[in-house]
Design goal:
The chain is α+β, with helices and mostly antiparallel strands. The protein has 3 domains: 71 residues, PAS domain (Beta-Lactamase, 2-Layer Sandwich); 56 residues; 83 residues, Histidine kinase-like ATPase, C-terminal domain (Heat Shock Protein 90, 2-Layer Sandwich), CATH 3.30.565. It is built from 6 helices and 8 strands. A 3-stranded antiparallel beta sheet has the order 1-2-3, covered by helices on one side. A 3-stranded mixed beta sheet has the order 5-7-8, with helices on one face. A hairpin with a 2-residue loop joins strand 7 and strand 8. Helix 3 packs antiparallel against helix 4. The chain is globular and about 50 Å long. The N terminus is likely disordered.
Length: 232
């Protein structure tokens, strides 16, 4: 079915039948006023492919506090808000004229860095739309995985610094050359790093390793957070 023809259809159109019970469970929790965070689920694209997604679903309340609906948030909505706050805050300081030359340079650098993160977030949202509609394309070509990882690290470094998280990076020279889409590879790396930083406590450590394993290159992102309980 074409995306335009899906408008106005029941939500179950994009939910596999074996996932209908979990959707009812989520809606029941929303009706009780509970927020469902990092809900791992599956949805069906317009071409029939199944896509793994992570969502946060929150109840929407009216002026009397009654639950009247639900909102679904993208995984990086917190980061999006943080970026906007940083841009607005530093721009206001620059506009006030109270910053010296060094502070002004720092403000400009911070605004640029957070604007770049915003660009990445918007690109991710557009990619989700392309995936759902079956229009996502990969541009496979010789790529430098080391450079891709370093670029992703620069994007998440401010978030790590804000929580005093130490980034330990090890990149083997032999693992640099790969065949892939560098933009998509950077998004994968960025997502892994963002999640690691998000769930690692302040003062923790996130390790990033790029290594050669046989004829393949391997990217490993690990952290010292509590992780998921074994009984889940």
């Amino acid at each position: 079915m074409q995306p335009a023809k899906q408008i106005g259809q029941h939500i179950r159109l994009i939910i596999p039948p074996d996932r209908w019970p979990e959707e009812e469970d989520v809606l029941a929790r929303i009706r009780r006023g509970k927020k469902v965070e990092h809900f791992e689920t599956v949805r069906r694209a317009s071409d029939g492919r199944l896509l793994n997604l992570s969502l946060t679903v929150s109840p929407i309340r009216d002026a009397q506090g009654r639950v009247v609906g639900a909102s679904k948030e993208a995984p990086h909505s917190d980061l999006c808000r943080a970026c906007l706050s940083a841009i607005t805050g530093w721009a206001s300081l620059m506009h006030s004229g109270k910053l010296d030359r060094e502070e002004t340079a720092r403000a400009a650098e911070t605004i640029l860095r957070n604007a770049q993160i915003q660009t990445q977030l918007i690109s991710d949202l557009l990619d989700v739309s392309a995936i759902v509609s079956g229009r996502l394309r990969l541009n496979i070509r010789p790529s430098n995985l080391g450079s891709v990882v370093k670029a992703a690290l620069e994007v998440v470094r401010p978030a790590a610094q804000a929580k005093s998280i130490h980034l330990e990076v090890s990149i083997e020279p032999a693992a640099h050359a790969v065949a892939g889409d560098p933009d998509r590879l950077q998004q994968v790396c960025w997502n892994l790093l963002s999640n690691a930083i998000k769930f690692t406590q302040s003062g923790g450590t996130v390790q990033v390793r790029v290594q050669r394993t046989g004829s393949s290159a391997e990217l490993v992102v690990s952290d010292n957070s509590k992780g998921i309980p074994s009984n889940l």
